[in-house]
Specification:
This protein is an alpha+beta fold. The chain contains 14 helices and 19 strands. It has helices spanning 2-24, 28-34, 39-45, 49-57, 68-72, 80-84, 88-97, 181-184, 191-199, 203-208, 219-222, 226-229, 234-242, 318-325; strands at residues 61-66, 99-101, 135-138, 144-147, 153-163, 166-171, 212-217, 245-247, 261-263, 269-275, 278-281, 284-293, 296-301, 337-338, 344-345, 361-363, 366-368, 374-377, 380-383. The strands form 5 sheets. The chain has a 7-stranded mixed β-sheet. Strands 2-1-6-5-4-3 form a 6-stranded mixed β-sheet. A two-stranded antiparallel ribbon has the order 14-15. A hairpin with a 2-residue loop joins strand 12 (284-293) and strand 13 (296-301). The longest helix has 23 residues, at 2-24. The termini are far apart. The model is unreliable at 1-8, 10-23 and 308-384 (pLDDT under 50).
């Protein structure tokens, strides 16, 4: 009995010590007020009292806090216009995207991409279950990097700053919420695929269907087989496009072991082959993996996949198909893309290598960038 009393006494003392330590630990407000590199972040958060309070009391969160330097870069970033216009609904969604559900210190990441869930998970507006994710990886030399929409990267400059209910990392750039496929195509040399999707009236399907995986051949792949596509009608072209999208599965590279079989929206199967450090889908090599989309994930491949049910053994150019049939970009009579948040835009961009803030808007948390008037020149999609 005496031993039991001693044990209970020790437990009570330990719990009391833990409780006292938590009370004495620095609060979230204290942490960001004391860090002179987070003054702009704190000033912004103070406008969004509900989120500010949640970060102070909800246990087990990780905050990726943009530094003052990151705020200085906003003007020339894709988020610049939204912040300049003080679009409060959109800014709140961006801030939510900087909060991870769970405690993720630096040593919880390694050399392989991980995909923690963010606070941006309103089912009514988000097209991915259970919500938007960000990619995190610890690179050679120990640098912790986070990758977000449009492949935007930020580095952690101050790590593992603990407060009483969570942990905070300071980052040198803003995270960009993932965007639809037709937006993302502008950044990753898959504009020919996007042109084929729009021409076959599947833009809304690719951009707004919940939980998808897209295997998009790059422009070079599409340039190789224009003679095949030029003979296709829109229905045939649509079947080819649908062979490159998986509906109902968000397949990140770390969830696709060797011989994984995925069923495409067209009905044919796609087989994942792991060869050393390389991934293949059927015979196409995956060149870029795990590009985040607002409704799933994008992998870029070096050739078009084969679908025996379409009667096409291989093809490589939606570019030539659009050239032969005359792409207008008009999808079911529409002249703009509607995103998850219901916003639309007719912004047009001729340079696929960069997206300034003027061509990219966030309205109610949704990113909009549309290109419905298109033509093709020299095998490349040209937007004007």
């Amino acid at each position: 009995m005496r031993f039991v009393n001693i044990l209970y006494g020790a437990i009570a003392l330990a719990l009391s010590s833990i409780s006292q330590a938590q009370e004495e630990a620095e609060t979230f407000q204290d942490l960001i007020e004391d860090n002179k590199n987070l003054t702009r972040f704190r000033e912004t958060l103070e406008t969004y009292t509900e989120l500010y309070e949640a970060l102070s009391i909800v246990p087990g969160l990780t905050v990726l806090a943009p530094s003052n330097e990151a705020f200085e870069k906003l003007e020339n970033s894709p988020l610049g216009q939204m912040f300049s216009a003080n679009d409060t609904a959109a800014i709140r969604n961006v801030l939510d995207y900087h909060v991870l559900n769970g405690t993720f210190p630096k040593d919880s990441f390694n050399g392989s991409l991980q995909f923690p869930l963010t606070y941006m998970m309103d089912f009514a507006t988000q097209k991915i279950t259970p919500g938007q994710k960000v990619a995190g990886v610890q690179q050679a030399g120990g640098e912790l990097v986070f990758i977000s929409g449009l492949g935007s990267r930020c580095s952690v400059t101050e790590e593992d700053l603990k407060y009483n209910t969570g942990i905070l990392h300071v980052i040198d750039n803003f995270l960009i919420p993932p965007q639809p496929f037709t937006n993302t195509s502008l950044q990753f040399n898959v504009t020919a695929m996007a042109g084929g999707v729009i021409k076959s009236k599947l833009g809304n399907y690719f951009d707004n269907t919940r939980d998808v995986t897209i295997f998009a051949p790059n422009n070079a792949a599409f340039q190789r087989i224009g003679s095949v596509i030029s003979t296709m009608n829109l229905e045939e072209l649509g079947r080819i496009m649908k062979y490159h999208i998986i509906n109902g599965t968000v397949a990140y590279s770390n969830t696709m072991p060797n011989n994984t079989i995925l069923r495409s929206a067209q009905g044919g199967n796609l087989t994942i082959i792991v060869d050393g450090n390389s991934l293949f889908v059927n015979s196409a090599k995956i060149l870029q993996q795990d590009l985040l989309l607002s409704n799933g994930v994008l992998h870029i491949i070096d050739s078009t996949t084969t679908s025996t049910s379409t009667g096409v053994e291989s093809f490589a150019s939606v570019t030539d198909a659009a050239s032969a049939t005359g792409v207008t970009g008009e999808e079911d009579g529409a002249s703009s893309t509607t995103t998850a948040g219901g916003a639309s835009s007719t912004s047009v961009r001729s340079d696929a290598s960069s997206l300034p803030s003027s061509s990219l808007m966030l309205m109610g948390g949704s990113v909009v960038c549309c290109f419905w008037t298109a033509g093709f020149l020299g095998g490349m999609l040209v937007l004007f």
